[in-house]
């Protein structure tokens, strides 16, 4: 099965002029929320991650809000593992809503897209400060540009060129960048 075709069918692969959370610009963007609206497609893409992590000893799966929540839930559902999420409060990643991490819990973070890894690493720090042991990061899409020192288990890998505003071909054409993600800059 061509997983990339599932992204195309759900119109999750976007082309245009995008302002990324990192501040960089790109002519391509993956909007996994478009894929996740179709349970059959989401199940198939997440099943690829399941195959890569099914033999790991995982106590808890954690999805950073927003994008990681649905991906984490689907992974937890397929593996039958407890699944919770972190979220930003005053722009700081936190664990709340009565969710708990026990000392020594083995945690897999599950994201929609890993680009810079900022949300993943903020989440890892929160969980480790609570005594958890982050053993890796799962994701629907790994953009292959992060500097994360943890194993990454992705359904697909996609590399898109990114640019500083000054070197962006779309900015040179005068097109306006749109910010499709959930994080405030």
From TrEMBL:
InterPro entries: OPRT, Orotate_PRibTrfase_bac, PRTase-like, PRTase_dom. It comes from the Bacteria. Homodimer. Orotate binds at residues 115, 143. Its cofactor is Mg(2+). Catalyzes the transfer of a ribosyl phosphate group from 5-phosphoribose 1-diphosphate to orotate, leading to the formation of orotidine monophosphate (OMP). It comes from Dethiosulfatibacter aminovorans DSM 17477. Its EC number is 2.4.2.10. GO terms for molecular function: magnesium ion binding; orotate phosphoribosyltransferase activity. This is Orotate phosphoribosyltransferase. SUPFAM superfamilies: PRTase-like. Coiled coil: none annotated. It catalyses: orotidine 5'-phosphate + diphosphate = orotate + 5-phospho-alpha-D-ribose 1-diphosphate. 5-phospho-alpha-D-ribose 1-diphosphate binds at residues 88, 111-119. Pathway: Pyrimidine metabolism; UMP biosynthesis via de novo pathway; UMP from orotate: step 1/2. Keywords: Glycosyltransferase, Magnesium, Pyrimidine biosynthesis, Transferase. Residues 41-147 form the Phosphoribosyltransferase domain. Belongs to the purine/pyrimidine phosphoribosyltransferase family. PyrE subfamily. GO terms for biological process: 'de novo' UMP biosynthetic process; pyrimidine nucleobase biosynthetic process.
């Amino acid at each position: 099965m061509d997983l990339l075709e599932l992204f195309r069918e759900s119109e999750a692969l976007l082309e245009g002029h995008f302002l990324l959370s990192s501040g960089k610009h790109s002519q391509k963007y993956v909007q996994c929320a478009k894929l996740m609206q179709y349970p059959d497609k989401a199940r198939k893409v997440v099943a690829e991650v399941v195959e890569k992590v099914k033999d790991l000893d995982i106590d808890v799966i954690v999805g950073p809000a927003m994008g990681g929540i649905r991906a984490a839930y689907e992974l937890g559902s397929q593996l039958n593992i407890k699944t919770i999420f972190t979220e930003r409060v005053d722009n700081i990643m936190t664990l709340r809503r009565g969710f708990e991490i026990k000392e020594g819990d083995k945690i897999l973070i599950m994201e929609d897209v890993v680009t810079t890894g900022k949300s993943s690493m903020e989440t890892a720090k929160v969980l480790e400060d609570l005594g958890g042991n982050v053993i890796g990061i799962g994701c629907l899409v790994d953009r292959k540009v992060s500097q994360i020192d943890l194993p990454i288990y992705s359904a697909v890998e996609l590399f898109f060129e990114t640019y500083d505003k000054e070197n962006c071909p779309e900015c040179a054409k005068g097109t306006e960048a749109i910010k499709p993600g959930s994080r405030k800059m």
